[in-house]
């Protein structure tokens, strides 16, 4: 149980570091993924990642970049504790004897197993986060139309016309309550579970495999205990990039499904979403927000793995 406690603690610290560093990038990624396809002849809401950052800061200030952080912050301990603990327990099962380093292939298997476990936590958490960010996108669009459209008649009694857009959700818990009440109960919170599996299982397999492979390469062998922090940062950053580089289209499908209207859905499922995105936007549509995701993955995962390794080694 000592190893389990160490993985739980170190995974929690690593996840907190990852979230703090990476959430602003994740916000921009979801904004780009969830923006609607513009009518023919019109420009999209955001011309790119930099434009999305500028518009978010102008409309909401720096806090807008941390929109939807409450849900992942509330579950970051559980998510990363499960990820690193399941991986650690699978390592123990695959070792021929205590303390024996695993091969890269064995680390791939451990990462895939950990990906299965964390999918059940990632799906509802990200549904809440995506709904909050998508709502911010929708409200900005409506506010823009209200401002630039035809003049609105004065309100009865001579007051100013009401052009403010009502906020649908009051925060993460309000999203969860709405989904539970109006979208099929607990099942509604797991909308997008299939593409979440398709992201987490191969993504974590690639990430942990690349991480171990790079550590062994930098150490010149399977014993990586003497690696310095710079090497851990490099291995962690590139491992994170391998996650998104290998599974990004599944994340786009997940995001559009999770923000799809429950009563009048645009997509009937993951395959339908994939086909419609490909038909309307081409391959490029499956990589919306890819730049921010990759920009996030390197520093965020570098921080995560470094915090995990340092915390775990300090626990003895």
TrEMBL record:
Membrane topology of the entry: Multi-pass membrane protein
Xref: InterPro entries: MCP_dom_sf, MCP_transmembrane, Mitochondrial_Carrier
Localization annotation: Mitochondrion membrane
Major subcellular location class: mitochondrion
Positions annotated as Solcar repeat: 2-93, 102-217, 227-314
Top-level taxon of origin: Eukaryota
Keyword terms of this UniProt record: Membrane, Mitochondrion, Repeat, Transmembrane, Transmembrane helix, Transport
Keyword Thylakoid belongs to the record: no
Alphabetical list of Gene3D superfamilies matching this protein: Mitochondrial carrier domain (1.50.40.10)
Record carries keyword Membrane: yes
Pfam families documented for this protein: Mito_carr
GO BP field: mitochondrial L-ornithine transmembrane transport
Record GO terms (molecular function): L-ornithine transmembrane transporter activity
GO cellular component, one term: mitochondrial membrane
Record family assignment: Belongs to the mitochondrial carrier (TC 2.A.29) family.
Protein name: Solute carrier family 25 (Mitochondrial carnitine/acylcarnitine transporter), member 20/29
Organism classification: Eukaryota, Viridiplantae, Streptophyta, Embryophyta, Tracheophyta
């Amino acid at each position: 149980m000592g190893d389990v406690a160490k993985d739980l603690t170190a995974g929690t610290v690593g996840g907190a570091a990852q979230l703090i560093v990476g959430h602003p990038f994740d916000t921009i990624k979801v904004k780009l993924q969830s923006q609607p396809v513009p009518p023919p002849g019109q420009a999209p809401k955001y011309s790119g990642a930099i434009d999305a950052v500028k518009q978010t800061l102008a409309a909401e200030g720096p806090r807008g970049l941390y929109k939807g952080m409450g849900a992942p912050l509330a579950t970051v301990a559980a998510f990363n504790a499960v990820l690193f603990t399941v991986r650690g327990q699978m390592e123990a099962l695959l070792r021929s004897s205590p303390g024996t380093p695993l091969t890269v292939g064995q680390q791939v298997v451990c990462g895939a197993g950990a990906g299965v476990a964390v999918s059940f936590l990632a799906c509802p958490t990200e549904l809440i986060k995506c709904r909050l960010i998508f709502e911010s996108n929708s409200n900005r669009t409506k506010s823009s139309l209200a401002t630039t459209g035809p003049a609105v008649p004065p309100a009865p009694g001579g007051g100013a016309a009401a052009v403010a857009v009502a906020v649908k959700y009051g925060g993460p818990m309000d999203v969860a309550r709405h989904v539970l009440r109006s979208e099929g109960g607990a099942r509604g919170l797991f909308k997008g579970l299939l593409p979440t599996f398709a992201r987490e299982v191969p993504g974590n397999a690639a990430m942990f495999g690349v991480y171990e492979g790079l550590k062994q390469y930098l150490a010149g062998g399977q014993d990586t205990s003497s690696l310095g922090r710079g090497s851990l940062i490099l291995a962690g950053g590139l491992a994170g990039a391998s996650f998104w580089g290998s599974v990004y289209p599944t994340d786009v499908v997940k995001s559009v499904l999770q923000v799809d209207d429950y009563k009048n859905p645009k997509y009937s499922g993951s395959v339908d979403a994939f086909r419609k995105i490909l038909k309307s936007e081409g391959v490029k549509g499956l990589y919306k927000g890819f730049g921010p995701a990759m920009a996030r993955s390197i520093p965020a995962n570098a921080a995560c793995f470094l915090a995990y390794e340092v915390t775990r080694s300090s626990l003895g």
